[in-house]
C-alpha cells in the first residue's frame, strides 16, 4: 500500500489533455491528411541516396497493408508480430496492424530461435512480418510449433526465389489484396479507424528481463500518446526536426520516439541504409533529437578516444586542451553558479578549434536534446558529452510506463540523478526503497500472466522493482535493480553498475562484471575491447591470434590493471577492486549473458562462471578453464585455457 | 543443387578445342577440350600445378596458347586482346586479388563499368545532357545491382587497400560484375576466406547464376570440394596439364581416376570442411 509508506512523493504537474477516444491510427490519419504530399514523413537511404516518403505515400501504403491483412483474415485484437531492421516497411506494417484493429508485437532482430518461438507462441500472433530471407528462415523453422501463426510476410524478396511455401506472401502481394478490397469497400479503412478507442490495447511489448522469461506488457493507445505528449511538453520538438531511427523497434525507447512523439509532432523519421552504416548516416542527417541507451554513447566516446590515441601530437594537444576547458565549463554549468567570463572565452575557443568538428563527426551538431536511459550511465561519459556542449539528459522509465516517466530538465542536470517526473506522473518511494510510479501511461497488465500483473500493479501504482530515493533537489536517484544492489563489508549498499560504468570509460574495456555482494572484498571479471586492444597490441608488436590469446597476455593484464587503478581512485577502501581476471571471450546476448539491450544478467553469469568467481576469492594465482563454446552456425569449440588472477595492491 | 538436370543441352558459350600451352618443354596444358553451356556453373578442378590458372589465362587472353582454338559465342578469339574479349562479354577475377588498393570501392567497381560508357573526353568535360544521363544510368546499375547484391554499402567510400581480404575479394567480384558479362571466370574465389565469407561468396555466385536479371555463366576454378560439388552443374578435371574427365559432380566423385589424382589427397584438400 503506497499510502502507508514513508513516501517522499513528487508533486505531479498537470497532465496534458488527450481525448480518451484518440488512438494512434486516428492521429495518424489526421496528420497524413494535414501534411499530404507537402511534407516528408520518412526518409530511407537506399542505393546510396536518401529517398523521401511523404505523408501521403505513408498513408497509402498503410491503408493497403491494413486492408490486405484484413483480406487475409485479420480480426479485431489479433496479434501481428514484426521483426527486422529499422525500415519504413516495418513501421508501416505496425501502423497498418493498428489501423486494422490488430495489436502489434515487435521482436528483436537478433532474437534466437527459442526466443522467437516463445514470443510468437505466447502472443498468439497470427501474422509475422519479416524483412527478408533471414527472418523468413527463422519463421519457417518455428511455424510447426506455432499453429496459430497463419502467414509470414516479407518485403525483401532477395534470396527467396526458391521458397514456395503456401504460408509465405510478399508485402507487395498483401498490398495488392488491400487495393482490391479498397475497390469493394472504399470506406472500410476509415470506418475501422473511427471504431477505435484510446483505452484499447495497441502494443504487446515483451520486456527483455534480466532474470526470467520475457513478459508481455499490454500498452494502450492512450498509454503511448499521453507519454509522448508529456515528454514533448518538457522538450518540445518541431515538425521540421529530424530524427534517426536505428535502434530496434522492439525497444520501447524507439517506439516512444518514432510513434508516441514522432506522430504527435510530425517530425521526419530517417532510416539508415544498413545497420552498419548508421553512424555515418546519422552524421549525414544531423538529427535534432536523439535517444539511445548508454552503450551507444559509450561507443561514441570510445570512437573518440581511439581516434585520439591514433592522432598526431599537435592534434592530441588541442584535444587535451579542449576537453580540459570543456570539462571545467560543464562542471561550472552543473553547479548552477554563474560561469566566469574567462571560462566562457576558453570554452568558446575550444568549441571553435576542436569540439565543433568533433560534434559534427558524431552527428551531434544540431542535437537540441539527447537522452539516455535503459541502464546506468557512468558520470565520466556523461561529463564527456556535456564538455562537448551536447545537452545530454538521463531519463528513467520502463516498458510498463510506455517509455519514460522521469527526465532531466534542461537547466537542471545532475549526472548522478535521472531528474524530475514528467507532467502527469507521480513518483513515490516505498518503505523498502522501491520506486513506484502512477501516471496515465502505466500499462494495462501482462499478457496471460495475472500473477505478475498483481505483483507489479497495485491500486494504479506501478512497482518497478528498482530501488532509489529522491534527493534534496527533488531529483530521483535510481539504484538499479533491487536485487543487484550489493552490501559491502561495512554494511553500506553499493551499486556495482557504478564501478562497472567507471571501468567502461576506458576505451580498452568493453565490459566489466563486478562481484562482491556480502563478500570480504570486491573483484571483477573484465572483457577487453578486441578492436582497440588489438590495435594497441599491434603498435607494440605483440603476437596473438585470437581474442582468447590476446586477453591473456601479461602486457594486456598490465594495461587492464592500469585502467582499474584509475577507476579505483577516490573510492572508499571497501569499494575498491582487489582482484581481477580477463575473460577469454566477450559477454554475448546469444549466450544469455546479456539481455538484448546489453544489460548483464548477473545471476546467470554468476552460475556460469562459478569456477572463476570461486578462484577470485581463493588464494589461487590462476584458474583452469575447460569449456565448450557454441557458435551461431552450430559448430562447437572446446576452450582450454588458464586465466590469470591479478591482485591489486594499494 | 540440382546439378544434373540443369546442365541440359544449351547453346555453347565457350569452347576450347585441343588447347595447349608450353613453357619451354613443360606442358602446362596439354590439349584441353571443353564446352561450357550458357547458364551453367562449370568448375575446373585439379591438384596444384595442374594447369587450371594457365587455362583461365588462355581464355581471358593473358596467355596465348601455342596450339588449339578457343571459341567464345561462336567466334574464334585466339587473336583477340584481353580488352577485346572483355568487350565481347567476358570478365574474370584473380586468384590473388588484383584490385586498385588506393582507390575506393566505388571507383574500383566503376572502372569495371567503363567499358559501357559511350561518351568521350570532350562531352565528359562539359557533362551535360547525354553524358550526365549515362552516368546516372550506370550509377543506378552499380548501386542497385552490385552494391546491394554484394552487401558492401558500408564500405562504399573506403580505399580497398584498407579492407580485409574477404571484402577485397568481394570488391573484385563486384568489378567483374560491373561489366555485366555473359561469362564470368572465377579463379579460386574462395581461397583465403573464412567459413562465413565462403558461404557469402558461394551465395553470390549462385545469385548471379540463377537470378534472371544476371543469368551469368560461370567458369569456376576452386579447391574447396564441398563448394564445387554443391555449386557446379559440370566439373572438368585436370591433372598435370592433361584432361582426366568432364562430367557431372556425381560422375566425377565416382570416377576412380579422379579419386586417385585428386580427391584421394584427403589430408590436403579436405581440411577446410
Please give the largest β-sheet of chain A.
Answer: 8 strands, mixed
Radius of gyration of chain A: 25 Å
Please give the CATH architecture of the largest domain in chain A.
Answer: 3-Layer(aba) Sandwich
The rounded distance between the terminal residues' Cα atoms of chain B is 18 Å
Using only C-alpha atoms, the radius of gyration of chain B works out to: 19 Å
Shape of chain B: globular
| SS content category of chain A | alpha/beta
Protein chain pair with the most extensive contact, residues per chain? A-B, 11 and 16 residues
**How many domains would you count in the coordinates of chain B?**
2
* CATH uppermost class of the largest domain in chain B: Alpha Beta
Per the CATH scheme, the topology name of the largest domain in chain A is Rossmann fold
Side by side, the strands of the main sheet of chain B go 6-7-8-3-9-10
Strand percentage of chain A: 15-25%
Strand content of chain B: 15-25%
The CATH architecture of the largest domain in chain B can be given as 3-Layer(aba) Sandwich
Shape of chain A: globular
